[in-house]
Amino acid sequence: MSDTLANDLSPLLISLLKGVLYREDDPPLWQSLTDQQVAVRDYIQVLGLELILDEAEGYAYLRQRQEDGDNDRGSLPRLIPRRQLSYPVSLLLALLRKRLAEFDASSGDARLILSRDQLVELLRLFLPEGTNEARLIDRIDSHISRVVELGFLRRLRGQQEPLYEVRRILKAFIDAQWLNEFDQRLAEYASQLGDGGEAR
């Protein structure tokens, strides 16, 4: 690779290796990515990665390439770790994805903004009620913080009431087929809670 090409690709590759690249966050870097995506794909292929670029939604990220077959010989170690998510965090992500689908179907706006209170109410319905309301809210706040850390929510600054933007990258991680089965899963879970079951 020539020094000129390496210098052009370095900011892109570093940004992508650190996480999701959004068009709105850095328009010049995004333009550079769209112009040089072939070179980026060629470079990261050596690392066992692939570029996922959604120009319509305005985000890009790297994903571990799927290995063909079960043969471990010659397979690369994982560069991008898998994250184990707790049930409440997984549930919140699914609820946000459903809300995003409803928002896209009924609104012409590009950004779904939710208040902290809306997020709390969204999740509270599916968590077992306890005697300590303050502790339940604290737990929900910690789940919201985890989703922010994962990059699926972004806290908006300068607001008196905490507001969060649902990041559109969520659509890449929870697909439409899973979402179609989601209502049935929630109904089953809600009936378990109604019968005295408890979330784990």
UniProtKB/TrEMBL annotation:
| Lineage of source species | Bacteria, Pseudomonadati, Pseudomonadota, Gammaproteobacteria, Pseudomonadales
Q: What is this protein called?
A: DUF4194 domain-containing protein
InterPro entries named in the record:
JetB
Which Pfam families does this chain map to? DUF4194
